[in-house]
């Protein structure tokens, strides 16, 4: 999980601070020393760490903080604000040209996920009501064009390519004319990468830049490479001039050094982050939300957005009526589990809940498997059994256990838990009878 290691260490530091009634300058200095070590271990750039700690110390050792009623909370507030500032203060959105088509040039080294990210970005832009076109300018890597075509078909975005051409600049020029003729208002140019930065690569990218005059040059970097990602960003910015960064594989980076360093070093914003392999896992980067998650404050806004995208409003309304009438069955239960799965991995969802301690989520993979086991059991039931669990006798349960590949004990446990949930929903329904409006818990 992104920032897991750093988040755990910072939360431990702040827990100690909050436990003290009064703070001295010595207490703050000791806490900031631990914060500094945690950031360095997270592979954050040394200069960035030094500047960050100096800013916090300057604000945190003032009379106003040390003599306040909640000095620990005040220090955490300062760290939170400085973290947001470090990562860019506000969300940096894509800009669009006043004269279509808007051209985005995707650059980066091989292996960062540039081609897949180009396709994902095309899907995001299509959802904005635009008509994007993907352009295959990586003529060197085997199957690069085919890869872009596959991703393009998955997001419903056309791909322009010239199969036999080895001239990326000519392909980019032809794509621009094609886009104008076919009313594509956004052009995303997927350029070639290299294993490392070299003169030939940069010359080619400069020629493409000159030919298509991109609205934005977006650098795709692998967050898991840590400090190397920052060095790559710095080099590309110096030689080509970038307008924004897309950090991929952030879900696999428990340290988070790249996300905390790249903006400060390049002075260019992080525009998107990749948090998984699915096409919808490319998400806009919000510095304030990320800072809150790092400090264990959750990310309720992203959680709500994910729920809105994943849950069908009509189905939620129908389910509410079933709760009222106590008609909730195993089919409904299965559907709700599948809706939750659409929101992403459980560890990511739980990390967005304020106060959730990630240290206690060590067995989360087991929970993911548990969901798959429950699905297998329910899918092994007949239609009648799902609708009316009361008919589940011994022989039926044995058949379900054999069909799902699970133990009879697991089947019995699931049925018992389901019945307990239905009883609880009935009690809540009885307690709220006669009340108008939506079905709510009695204390809400």
UniProtKB/TrEMBL annotation:
Q: Enumerate the Pfam families for this protein.
A: SRP54, SRP54_N, SRP_SPB
Q: Which GO terms describe its cellular component?
A: signal recognition particle
The parts of the chain that form a coiled coil are none
Q: Name one GO biological process term.
A: SRP-dependent cotranslational protein targeting to membrane
Its subcellular locations are:
Cytoplasm
**What SMART domains does the record tag this protein with?**
AAA (SM00382), SRP54 (SM00962), SRP54_N (SM00963)
Write out the entry's keywords from A to Z: Cytoplasm, GTP-binding, Hydrolase, Nucleotide-binding, Ribonucleoprotein, RNA-binding, Signal recognition particle
What superkingdom heads the lineage? Bacteria
Quote the catalytic activity from the record: GTP + H2O = GDP + phosphate + H(+)
List, alphabetically, the InterPro entries matched. AAA+_ATPase (IPR003593), P-loop_NTPase (IPR027417), Signal_recog_part_SRP54_M_sf (IPR036891), Signal_recog_particl_SRP54_hlx (IPR013822), Signal_recog_particle_SRP54_M (IPR004125), SRP (IPR004780), SRP54 (IPR022941), SRP54_GTPase_dom (IPR000897)
SUPFAM superfamilies according to UniProt: P-loop containing nucleoside triphosphate hydrolases, Signal peptide-binding domain
Q: What class of enzyme is it?
A: hydrolase
Q: Please list every transmembrane segment annotated in the UniProt record, as residue ranges.
A: none
Any GO MF annotation of the entry: GTPase activity
Q: Which residues bind GTP?
A: 108-115, 190-194, 248-251
Keyword Ligase on this protein? no
Chief localization class? cytoplasm
Instruction: Outline the extent of the SRP54-type proteins GTP-binding domain.
Output: 269-282
Query: What EC number is given for this enzyme?
Result: 3.6.5.4
Described by its record, this protein's role is as follows: Involved in targeting and insertion of nascent membrane proteins into the cytoplasmic membrane. Binds to the hydrophobic signal sequence of the ribosome-nascent chain (RNC) as it emerges from the ribosomes. The SRP-RNC complex is then targeted to the cytoplasmic membrane where it interacts with the SRP receptor FtsY.
Summarize subunit and interaction data from the UniProt record for this chain.
Part of the signal recognition particle protein translocation system, which is composed of SRP and FtsY.
Q: What is known of its domains?
A: Composed of three domains: the N-terminal N domain, which is responsible for interactions with the ribosome, the central G domain, which binds GTP, and the C-terminal M domain, which binds the RNA and the signal sequence of the RNC.
**Family classification:** Belongs to the GTP-binding SRP family. SRP54 subfamily.
Which PANTHER family is this protein grouped with?
SIGNAL RECOGNITION PARTICLE 54K PROTEIN SRP54 (PTHR11564), SIGNAL RECOGNITION PARTICLE SUBUNIT SRP54 (PTHR11564:SF5)
State the name under which the record lists this protein.
Signal recognition particle protein
This protein's gene is called ffh
């Amino acid at each position: 999980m992104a920032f897991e290691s750093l988040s755990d260490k910072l939360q431990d530091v702040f827990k100690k601070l909050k436990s003290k009634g009064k703070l001295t300058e010595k207490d703050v200095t000791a806490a900031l020393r631990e914060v500094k070590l945690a950031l360095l271990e997270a592979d954050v750039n040394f200069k960035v760490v030094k500047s960050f700690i100096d800013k916090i110390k300057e604000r945190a050792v003032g009379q106003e903080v040390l003599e306040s009623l909640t000095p620990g909370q005040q220090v955490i507030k300062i760290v939170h604000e400085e973290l947001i500032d470090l990562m860019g203060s506000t969300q940096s959105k894509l800009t669009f040209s006043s004269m279509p088509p808007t051209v985005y040039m995707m650059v980066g080294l091989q292996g960062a996920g540039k081609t897949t990210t180009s396709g994902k970005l095309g899907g995001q832009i299509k959802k904005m009501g635009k008509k994007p076109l993907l352009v295959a300018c990586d003529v060197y890597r085997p199957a690069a064009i085919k890869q872009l075509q596959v991703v393009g078909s998955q997001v419903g975005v056309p791909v322009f390519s010239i199969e036999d051409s080895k001239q990326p600049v000519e392909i980019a020029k032809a794509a621009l004319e094609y886009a104008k003729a076919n009313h594509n208002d956004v052009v995303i140019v997927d350029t070639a990468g290299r294993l490392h930065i070299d003169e030939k690569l940069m010359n080619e990218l400069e020629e493409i830049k000159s030919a298509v005059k991109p609205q934005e040059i977006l650098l795709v970097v692998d967050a898991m490479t840590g400090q190397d990602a920052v060095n790559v960003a710095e080099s590309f910015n110096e030689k080509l001039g970038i307008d924004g960064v897309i950090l991929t594989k952030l879900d696999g980076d428990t340290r988070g050094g790249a996300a905390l360093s790249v903006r400060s070093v390049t002075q260019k914003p992080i525009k998107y982050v990749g948090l998984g392999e699915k096409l919808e896992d490319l998400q806009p980067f919000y510095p304030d939300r990320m800072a809150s998650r790092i400090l264990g404050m959750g990310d309720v806004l992203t959680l709500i957005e994910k729920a809105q995208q994943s849950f069908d409003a009509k189905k939620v309304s129908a389910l509410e009526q079933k709760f009222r009438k106590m008609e909730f069955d195993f089919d409904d239960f299965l559907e709700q589990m599948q809706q939750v799965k659409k929101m992403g991995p459980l560890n990511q969802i739980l990390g967005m809940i304020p106060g959730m301690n990630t240290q206690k989520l060590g067995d989360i993979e087991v929970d993911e498997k548990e969901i798959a086991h429950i699905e297998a059991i329910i899918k092994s039931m007949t239609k009648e059994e799902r609708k009316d669990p009361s008919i589940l006798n011994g022989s039926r349960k044995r058949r379900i256990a054999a069909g799902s590949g699970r133990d009879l004990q697991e089947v019995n446990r699931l049925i018992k838990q389901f019945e307990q949930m239905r009883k609880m929903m009935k009690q809540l329904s009885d307690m709220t009878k006669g009340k108008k409006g939506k079905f709510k818990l009695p204390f809400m």
